[in-house]
Amino acid sequence: MKKFLVFIQKEFYHIVRDTWTMIILLVLPILMTLLFGFGISTEIKNAKFAVYDPSHDLATQKIIDKIKTSDYFTLETYIDDPADIETIFQEGKIALVIVFSEQFYENMLHTGDAQILLIADGTDPNTASTLTSYASRLVASYQQDQMGATGMPPYQIHTEVKLLYNPTLKGSYNTVPGVMGMILMLICAMMTSVSIAREKELGSMEVILVSPMPPLLIILSKVIPYFAISIVNFTTVLLLSVYALEIPIVGSLFLLYGLALLFIFVSLALGLLISSLVDKQIVALLISVMGLLLPTVLLSGLMFPIENMPLLLQGIAQIVPAKWFIVAVKNVMIKGLGITSIMKELVVLGAMAVVLITLSLKKFKIRLD
Amino acid sequence: MKVIETDKLTKKFGSFTAVDSISMEVEKGEIFGFLGANGAGKTTAMRMLCGLSTPTSGKGTVAGFDINKNPEDIKKNIGYMSQKFALYEDLKVWENLRLFGGIYGVPQKEIEPRIDKLLTTLGFMDEKNTMVKALPLGWKQKLSFSASIFHEPKIVFLDEPTGGVDPATRRQFWELIYDASDRGITVFVTTHYMDEAEYCDRVSIMVDGKIEALDSPKNLKSTFNVESMDEVFFQLARGAKNE
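^ inputs. structure came back:
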């Protein structure tokens, strides 16, 4: 036991005495959380819009008021001629144009044929779809107001599922679980695999393997420091989300930590597996980045919705551990759901952990044959 | 007393025979030189003796334990130093020694006094708190050797311990080896330097996985009727296939 502790301590010395390692382990997660939380955001504020309103009646005025008083939109100008719509987009000042049909109020009351056309710049599809969905939501909410006031027949109201749990439309609700996955993958898998590969490269692994220290303890002592640091990092990200990004933790904190532990085991096992396959730090680093970090960023649903990917990529996304972790974190942390809602994710991650740990322990060369 | 005995020890990788039926005996306290060109099979043979690699066939005992059956017991009784790795550069001198003392099972209470005693003997007490990376190579290697025998093993295996070191430092290094041998530690050393071969009590020369010669440097020179170990080595290695 004593020799085990001495060995873990040595690993901590390696970490603490290397400035870059310290920066990656402690500063990077904070930066990433803040950057993704504040900076890289799909959230839209004060987007400029223009209006073409041939009706100029009570209803159109109310709808315009509703949209322009929301946080998301600012009224830039009225257009008098529909031919100007294209010019105004080309100038690039306007993100959205709202076009009302003629005799809007009349039609709304009598024929039910009141139409609104939302035009957005499709060259940036993400922004365009966000803008149109915000605007149609505002229109829908106007309709709802009217329904209550005049007792008109009910309208079909379109609401997106995403908004259900994110009433303020904050982009960071979406990114924080993804950032957690990224950070844990970075620290557990990448740092562990690099640190073990370094021992192989230095030749110290050989010297340690000649010692009476059991190989299992050697692995454990390499892994435990990164395990401890990743728990610290997970806590940091949680604190940042609650206090800096103002995302409340709705669900059980206990369950959230359980989930993080499971994901950490998967990541550590991946790191071990990589380090058992390679002998050079640079190779370990490349495999971790290309094989683990990139899929975590691109295929886990953090950046792009998985449903919109080509089938092949959708298939690959299923084996990205972060994908399952992110879904489960969203369910627990943001939607506040209980353990029953994430059974599938827990089972998948659990199976991944078991398979990967078994595989990496088998692969770890006890003897250097 | 024999501390290393092997009988037709063989290691094959696929169809390639790296170590071909080697048999030898090493006495307690002996300095045994294990020579051979690159690729002759020295490292593979040494790994089998250290319990790092299982023989394909043949038998052997190291420190009284069977290579095939009790490699873990062998590990407790040997020290190992490789040319590639000296000590952890980002640990202090005493931290390195404590680490190796620790993993080889030196009792906690004894580690501190032993470190102080060792550093005093080496005249190195002032550098106790120095990071290893700040030390010159020669010192690193002396310390590395001291770390490998810190737990007073029965045998220490040195894999080209003096690579890249100047002759004066090499000479000092060999004084440490003699001290260890005087204390009864058997030294099993591979080297490229033929002047070092002369310092050994006995040497074996491996060619293509086989031990082609095994005797004291003096006897080898008279057998081959040459002036230096260099020439002995050259005559034997000339016929090698696996250069």
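Chain B touches chain A at residues 47, 50-54, 71-72, 75-76, 78, 80-82, 84-85, 88, 90-91, 95, 98-100, 102-105, 108, 157 (CB under 8 Å). Chain B is about 35% helix and 25% strand.
thumbs up if we can close this ticket
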